[in-house]
Specification:
Family: Belongs to the heme-containing dehydratase family.
Strand order of the largest sheet: 6-12-9-11-10-3-4-2-5-13-8-14
Number of helices: 8
Radius of gyration: 20 Å
Keywords: Heme, Iron, Lyase, Metal-binding
Number of domains: 1
Cofactor: heme b
Pfam families: Dehydratase_hem
Protein name: Phenylacetaldoxime dehydratase family protein
Length: 349
């Protein structure tokens, strides 16, 4: 028994008549109704790895395990050569998330940071939306990624895939809402963020994607194919998005490496967290730019070649957020996350 959101379709679907996907794909389903899904990213921004500030962050992260449906520890190269350790917590119960914010040591530490008295930066980006503004895709249903690590979720086969516009069709709300932002966000080069706590209110209908790559099971020819072929195509595509924000609508893009929570060793697992001005701009890159077409065709060919023996797994989850999305930055580099693009920037005293 699964629960889903459905609306009578008012806007036309993008699916071509008679479409049959070239490769099987799966999507996340929920066992029970929920009002909000939450992905809570809380990070420390350090000059380099190691040291007492990192140790304290990790201690607090481990002490905050109770409450989330699932947690991950990630690392990214931040702006201006910084290192960002990221604690990611997923919730399918919004009340559980509020309790965690109120009671858990890690968010409590963040809320008490004095931006004028710390030698590091920290940020907290919360993605929260109704399930009708959420969609997923998995190349293999046997692994639990993202919200799939939460109890009460499963992966089921689908055929709303394999054509450009499929991701939009997978949003239940796309049946009645064009998901179009009003106006255009403008980059600011004058954000004085050092020594300050700044809160960002995101623009309405901002799209956020977490796109994952998992190749721990890969060996031999498949390992070589990923690390020497597909991975370079992925990095080329991400570089294009990051370096051309005016053309692609890219507001923020991080390449995250998953860490073993006990040993802190990097896993053969990465994900890209990207914020975009609109779903339409993300779709345009996916449908027409050679950097994404190279990724897409390689993935289809690899699945065709290896079939069920394919040991490299790809997946993504996308949310289109209402204006009330909240992000907060403490003593961060000015180009961190959404700071340069914030339509509304509030100083928190």
């Amino acid at each position: 028994m699964t629960w889903s959101v459905e609306y009578p379709r008012v806007l036309p679907a993008r699916r071509p008549p008679g479409h049959e996907p070239r490769a099987p794909r799966w999507t996340l389903v929920l066992d029970a109704p929920t009002s909000l899904l939450t992905a809570d990213y809380l990070a420390i921004q350090l000059p380099a790895r190691g040291g007492p500030d990192e140790d304290r962050f990790l201690e607090l992260a481990r002490a905050s395990a109770a409450g989330p449906g699932s947690t991950e520890l990630l690392v990214a190269t931040g702006p201006e050569g910084t290192v960002e350790l990221v604690h990611l917590a997923y919730f399918t119960d919004p009340t559980a998330h509020e309790r965690w914010l109120h009671d858990a040591p890690l968010p409590g530490w963040f809320s008490r940071l004095d931006p004028a008295d710390v030698g590091f930066g920290a940020w907290h980006e919360v993605l929260q939306c109704h399930p009708d503004r959420f969609e997923t895709i998995y190349s293999d249903p046997r692994w639990e990624f993202g919200f799939g690590g939460c109890a009460g979720t499963a992966r089921e086969p689908m055929t709303t895939n394999g054509y450009f516009g499929a991701a939009r069709d997978r949003f239940p709300v796309s049946a009645i809402d064009p998901l179009e932002p009003v106006g255009k966000q403008v980059r600011r080069d004058d954000v004085a963020s050092r020594g300050r706590r700044l809160r960002v209110e995101s623009g309405h209908d901002m799209a956020v994607i977490r796109s994952g790559q998992f190749w721990e099971p890969a060996e031999g020819e498949q390992l070589v194919d990923y690390e020497h072929n597909l991975q370079s195509k992925l990095l080329t595509g991400m570089a294009h998005l990051r370096d051309n924000p005016a053309d692609t609508g890219t507001l923020s893009l991080r390449i995250l490496t998953s860490l073993d929570p006990a040993s802190l060793a990097p896993r053969r697992e990465t994900s890209v967290l990207g914020h975009f001005h609109s779903l339409g701009e993300l779709e345009e890159w996916a449908a027409s730019h050679h950097t994404h077409l190279a990724i897409y065709e390689h993935a289809i060919e690899a699945k065709r070649h290896w079939g069920d023996a394919r040991s490299v797994v790809t997946w993504h989850e996308v949310v289109v957020l209402p204006r009330t999305a909240r992000s907060e930055y403490v003593n961060c580099v000015p180009t961190t996350g959404l700071l340069p693009w914030a339509p509304t920037l509030l100083t928190v005293e």
